[in-house]
Design a protein that fits this description.
This protein is α/β, with parallel strands linked by helices. The chain has 2 domains: 3-58, no CATH class; 68-285, Rossmann fold. Helix content is 36%, strand content 19%. It is built from 9 helices and 11 strands. The chain has helices spanning 3-14, 23-42, 51-58, 67-84, 101-106, 122-129, 183-196, 241-250, 270-276, and strands at 91-95, 114-119, 138-141, 169-174, 197-209, 220-222, 225-227, 237-239, 253-255, 262-263, 279-285. Strands 1, 2, 3, 4, 5, 6, 7, 8, 9, 10 and 11 form an 11-stranded mixed sheet that branches. Bound molecules: S-adenosylmethionine (SAM). S-adenosylmethionine binds next to α3 and α5. Residues 57-58, 95-98, 101-102, 119-121, 124, 142, 144, 146, 149, 157, 175-177, 180-181, 185 line the site of S-adenosylmethionine (SAM).
Length: 287
């Protein structure tokens, strides 16, 4: 029996390639949510989204009880602050914010600055809008198609125009989002980000750079990128760094970290390093 083949068939028939969409996950989620809520209450973490929602942002591994969600959010927020030089009085846009993993970590820092989060996952945005710790932040759902994350979406990423004025943000960031997007969609997001950035603005994004990576996990080679699954392209997409640079250059942004990909800095927790395994890249508008 070929277990990998069986697993592939099961995934294809029952989900769109994400664990949290699998019927088995959905069947056990209510019980796990209830137990998780009790543990979080004892830890003073009742404000976190429930287990099944947190799993939409980072997968279910290590999510139970909420500590990992908080630690990883803080670590990522710290890295965003370090790499972009984000000041507490600046305006920030996070694209693909999911249930607010990083927003929660920025909530106390970003005063009097403003935070806007968007995502194509309406349920995740609803969780942010009802989170008492995120009351001063703004969230918008994007009606954009993704076979994995939003199969009912009406707009295509390659045509999408964000509902925000020109030059309205100092920092835009996306973590683990371009890793689920195809080149034409990234190119349009890059044009939009360039439009929305103020002079002196910064874009921080994480990517699955092909360089230094075991490409066996991304076996489907396409023109200029690689996929984990041909059936569900948005499940995971990897690019050579030069291709990401080309897409950003086409929108008028250049890499500002000296040419090398900075490794995603995890907190002192080996699980986080192996979970994320992404590369953070900083871009600035061309003068
Ligand atoms: C792996 S999760 C990461 C969530 C969050 N950025 C974090 O680091 O906790 C990927 C997120 O990207 C969102 N996403 C996928 N494609 C997108 C697109 N084209 N535009 C905006 N968000 C997208 C998904 O809905 C999902 O919430």
């Amino acid at each position: 029996m070929n277990v990998e083949r069986l697993r592939g068939v099961a995934l294809k028939r029952t989900s769109r390639g994400a664990v949290w969409q699998h019927p088995l996950f959905k069947a056990v989620a209510p019980a796990v949510d209830a137990a998780d809520a009790a543990v979080r209450a004892a830890r003073g973490l009742s404000h976190l989204p429930k287990f099944s929602m947190r799993s939409r942002a980072m997968g279910p591994t290590h999510q139970f009880g909420g500590l990992h969600f908080v630690a990883s959010g803080r670590a990522t927020a710290a890295q965003i602050r370090d790499m972009t030089g984000l000041r507490p009085d600046e305006d920030v846009l996070e694209i693909g914010c999911s249930v607010g993993r990083i927003a929660l970590a920025l909530a106390e820092y970003l005063q009097p600055g403003r935070y806007t989060g968007t995502d194509i996952d309406r349920r995740a945005i609803a969780a942010c809008l009802t989170n008492p710790k995120l009351e001063s932040f703004r969230f918008e759902a994007q009606d954009v198609f993704s076979l994995v994350y939003n199969p009912g979406g009406r707009a295509q990423g390659r045509d999408y125009v964000f509902p925000f004025p020109d030059a309205s943000f100092d920092v835009v960031f996306l973590t683990s989002v371009f890793t689920h997007m195809l080149p034409d969609d990234i190119a349009q997001y890059a044009r939009e980000i360039r439009r929305m950035l103020r002079p002196g603005g910064r874009l921080l994004c994480s990517v699955l750079a092909e360089e230094g990576r075991d490409l066996a996990a991304l076996p489907v080679a396409r023109d200029g990128y690689r996929l984990r699954s041909a059936e569900f392209p948005e499940n995971a997409v990897a690019y050579p760094l030069a291709e990401i640079d080309r897409l950003m250059a086409g929108a008028g942004m250049d890499r500002s970290d000296g040419g090398g990909a900075a490794a995603w800095a995890p907190p002192a927790d080996d699980h986080l390093r192996s979970l994320m395994e992404q590369d953070l890249l900083l871009y600035v508008p061309r003068r």
